[in-house]
Amino acid sequence: MAADAPIAGKTHQIRTIQAFDADEHAHNLTDWEQSYDQITPGHFHGCLTELQLPQMQVFREDTSQAVHQSCCVWPDTFWFGLPVQTGQTRINGRLVGPHSIMVRPGHCEFELQTPSDYVIYGIVMRQDNLQHAAERGGCLIDWAKLAQAEVMQVAPHPHQRLLQRLAGLLQQNGPYTDPAWRQQLLLNALLALLDTSKVDPAVSNSFQRRQRIVAKARDLVLSQHDETLTVPELCERLFVSRRTLQYCFEDVLGMSPMQYLRLVRLNTARRRLRQSNTQPVSVQDVATDLGFWHVSQFSCDYRKLFGQTPSQSRQMH
């Protein structure tokens, strides 16, 4: 994907779109590669408000349920994420503290885990434009360190000012109308924040090892489309004890391996059922393919998580 493809030729209009499925919501953000799994039980409601400016993308994302997100933005950019309330936000397993922003370079997959009733503002900025603006403004930024960062601690005042700028820019009848002026206001606030920020120290070797174990487990689970893995099988393939696997998942994802496997299977079932208009499939076939041998129990677990039956999911899409 070309670096300027997502931004060139836009009309700079604010776009708001709602969704009632986590994975459908994930695909509403322009030019991102994303996949969302719903974690907490209940009906999902997501709202995305997005604005494309000449050199950046700005958005606000609201989600009613906790979700696990796999995300990747286009190359040669930086993404900055500003949660309104950090709560139990995790980026690549790391908890995000108050007055923090998250940052990742483009074309680099990362994972987020966000709590219920969550609001986050996002900025995607071309790397070269951000560097040029920093040079013109005399901001001293360690770009190599920024590219490796996941979490940055920032001063409360510039953090709050940037949040206010973002909220104002995304109002349909807000005070800022000229695209270039909008972008300059936001860029000034972002650079002021970066100029006073401090990159969180690198995680310990032990936490990095736990991250790797969880990442390998996730890759195994997602790659085995025709095989339903159990916790003992994961331990065997990863060469770790059950206790080690339990500790890794609780530390990185805040849940047990058993909970994780169940959530992945239920979210996979939902995707297949919602695709059944183009690829006809029965509820029983989906359940048994994913290792739910008792269809009635599968339906009960499904309804508890998503607030509707498997059959309703098929009919609504």
From TrEMBL:
Gene3D superfamilies on file: Homeodomain-like (1.10.10.60)
Checking InterPro entries in the record gives: AraC_XylS_family_regulators, Homeodomain-like_sf, HTH_AraC, HTH_AraC-typ_CS
- Where does the signal peptide begin and end? none
Residue stretches making up the HTH araC/xylS-type domain: 215-316
**One GO MF term attached to the UniProt entry:** sequence-specific DNA binding
What keywords would UniProt list here? DNA-binding, Transcription, Transcription regulation
Q: Which Pfam families has this protein been placed in?
A: HTH_18 (PF12833)
- Superkingdom, taxonomy of origin: Bacteria
Which protein are we looking at? Answer: AraC family transcriptional regulator
What is the organism field in this record? Answer: Rhodoferax fermentans
